[in-house]
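Listing S7. Sequence submitted for prediction.
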Amino acid sequence: MKTTISVAPLAAGLLLALNVAAQEHSQHQMPMPAAQDHSQHQMPAMQEHTQHQVKPKAKPKVKPKPKPKAKPVTTSKPKATAPAAPMDHAAMGHEMPAQAPAAMGHDAAQPAPMDHAAMGHAMPHPADQPITPIPVLTAEDRAAAVAPPNDHPVHDNSVQHYVLFNRLEGFDTDDGTGMAWEGQAWVGTDLNKLWLRSEGERVGGHIEGADLEVLYGRAFARWWDVVGGVRHDFKPGASQDFVAIGVQGLAPYKFEVEATAYLGQSGQTAARLEAEYETLLTNRLILQPLVEVNFYGKNDARRGIGSGLSTAEAGLRLRYEVTRQFAPYIGVVREHAFGSTADFRRAAGEDVNDTRVVAGIRIWF
């Protein structure tokens, strides 16, 4: 017996199964939510992409029924999963990388560029520009760079002056009180000066020795002048004049030196050498040793002067500078006569050696 299978019912069952499968697939594929503004949410790319994708459930397998007129199989529609509410990423503080929209394939607007000036961030300066700006010079700055008008200009032609009494002192002797002085003054420029130098001694109301020198000085080296002029001796004996030439200045180790040669009337010659040094014990307390030596070319009995080394004087004075221009001092002085000069003093009943304590002031202006 032949069994005849009808093709029409089988085709109808297949069409019915395909229709059911299509309905289930359309229900499981939920529509994607509209593109969100990633500039506001700033959600990481992977997290947001997984939230938008909902996996559909697996398709049920439908077996074709052999019976030609079978009722269509009805299946219950699965409940669609509601899309999750969009997350407020701004409140969560998440920052989305700038490359996330492009990597995800979303057509989202790029965030606006950040205003670093408004945020207070300083942009780096070029290497050739200073970090601290250089202020513009003002009139006050230019005035401060100029020396005061009363300052002593160096190597200038302005006329200046200076007066110094290095020794102005009193002492006691057997013949009564005495007074001695030694000073100098100059007027002129840095290169050319007119010098005045004087020293002397007065004892018991009588001048025992005094002289005055008027010299022209010319600077020939740093701290050194060559001088030339005349010298007039008032005492001892009758007055006499000399032609003077010498040098003066600051020797190495800050020794102040004066060396002068003289040519006098009737062929008399003389020389004087003086050196002094200042030792600062403190900024105001200064110890000053001084040595003076006199030479003569020949004997002069009328003035009590012998040839060769005539006299030598050494003193040690300690002064305190109340100001730089005014300084009182105390000291001790030793004088000694040599050769024929000592013989002339003995013949006159005078002491060959003399030691005395002195007190005085040193001033300059």
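Caption to Listing S7: primary sequence and predicted structure tokens for the chain studied. Residues 87 and 274 are 104 Å apart (CA to CA). Residues 33-56, 73-78, 93-109 have pLDDT under 50 and may be disordered.
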